[in-house]
Amino acid sequence: WETGRGVRSVVIGRRQWIRQPGLGWNEGDYGSGLAFKTRGWFAWNRYAREVRLLSEDRGRAVLALTDEGTPVWFRLTVDLATDRVVAEQMTARARFLDTRFTDFGRRFRIEAPG
Questions:
Q1: Rg value, the chain, Cα
Q2: DSSP conformation class of 41
Q3: What tens digit of pLDDT does each residue of 38-91 get?
Q4: Burial class (CB in 10 A: 0-12, 13-18, 19+), 74
Q5: How far apart are the first and last CA of the chain?
Q6: C-alpha 114: how far from its chain's center?
Q7: Count of alpha carbons within 13 angstroms of residue 107, beta-carbon side
Q8: CA–CA distance, 45 with 38 (Å, rounded to integer)
Q9: Distances from the Cα of 10 to the Cαs of 18, 35, 114, in angstroms?
Q10: pLDDT of residue 112
């Protein structure tokens, strides 16, 4: 991923590489050392209790989800033809995240930055 200030990060398993603008890649442990897994990234059992349909247009639906206990807010864009989430916006205290999901089913190789 890349921040708005140009900091880039790559996570593969338990390793993370970070590069600040004008500097080289710096390798280290990722987070607490636990491997990154997308399967548990979105906890539907918590967030799906507060779901609202914001809009539906051109074959896409925009949903709002919230977990008041955290607090964290999500806005998901869903392709209605495939039922796939194609975009996610997450807002929490001092953290904002915009993610786009593309190339479903396409094979690609993940490599550490060099």
A1: 16
A2: S
A3: 555 556 666 666 789 999 999 999 999 887 777 788 899 999 999 999 999 988
A4: buried
A5: 16
A6: 24
A7: 0
A8: 15
A9: 7, 13, 11
A10: 85
Backbone φ and ψ for 46, nearest 5 degrees, come out as -90, -55
Judge whether 72 and 66 are in contact, CB under 8 Å: yes
Q: For tokens 């979105």, what's the residue?
A: 42
Q: Where are the beta strands (DSSP E) in 4-83?
A: 8-12, 15-19, 25-29, 51-57, 60-67, 72-79
Residue pLDDT, tens place only, 6-42: 898 888 878 889 999 999 999 998 876 555 555 555 5
pLDDT for 10 equals 87
Amino acid at 32: S
Q: Is the pTM of this model over 0.70?
A: no
Place of tokens 């993940």: 110
Nearest 10 degrees: CA dihedral of 94, 95, 96, 97?
Answer: 180
How far is Cα 78 from Cα 101, in angstroms, rounded to an integer?
10
